[in-house]
Amino acid sequence: MYSLPGFRTMVGVLLCLVIPGRVDLAAREGLYAPHRPGDAALVRVVNLSPRKDSPPLRLGPVRFPPKPAMTAGPYRPVPRGVYRLPGPERTVVSPEPASFVTIVTGFAPEPGEKHHVFQDTPHDDPARAQLVFYNLSEKELGLVVADSGKAIFPPFSGPASATVALNAVAVELEIRHNGVAMVVTEVLLSRGDSTAVFAVPRHPGLVGFTARASVVQD
């Protein structure tokens, strides 16, 4: 298991990489996705590989370019349909119109291309921040406020996700397993924005990854 100081340094670097200074679609009314398309889903790809770029991905007419290691792409409009992802598991994605979908790749410790598909909760409140916790581990993990120990998400096993709306604030969070902090990360929660915290299995323990959502219009 990695030491907490090492995690603080690692996650701090990741935060610098994945929270951009601008978003691809200018937010209106303080929301990262103020208007959901009625005839398309919004889909993003997150690459959690520690070293490798993700391969390009195509869902019908929409191409998702390769993503560098440990980065999250913006949501892109994808027409309704049934799409099969590459890889030995041949995962199927069936995005519904006006829905949000996150496709995660690069998180599996074993060789081979593996994906997991999450149905995300839209964020429609410009006055509050949205926090999403993605647990890619089979361990029961919870997310708590570091200084108070207050639980934001009680422990649950993955792969699974949970979502909550919170006041906008800068906060230090801990990903805990059996009450022990495995990862410590700082996040800046902003009104109208959606921020994701990913718990990623990585031998011999876990790593954390944080990304702020954005939407691109092609």
TrEMBL record:
Family matches, as InterPro entries: AlgF
Principal localisation: periplasm
Keyword Nucleus (UniProt): no
Pfam families, alphabetized: AlgF
Alphabetical UniProt keywords: Alginate biosynthesis, Periplasm, Signal
Biological process, per Gene Ontology: alginic acid biosynthetic process
CC annotations in GO: periplasmic space
Compartments (UniProt record): Periplasm
Pathway the protein contributes to: Glycan biosynthesis; alginate biosynthesis
Record's keyword annotation contains Signal: yes
Similarity comment: family membership: Belongs to the AlgF family.
Name of protein: Alginate biosynthesis protein AlgF
Gene source species: Alkalispirochaeta sphaeroplastigenens
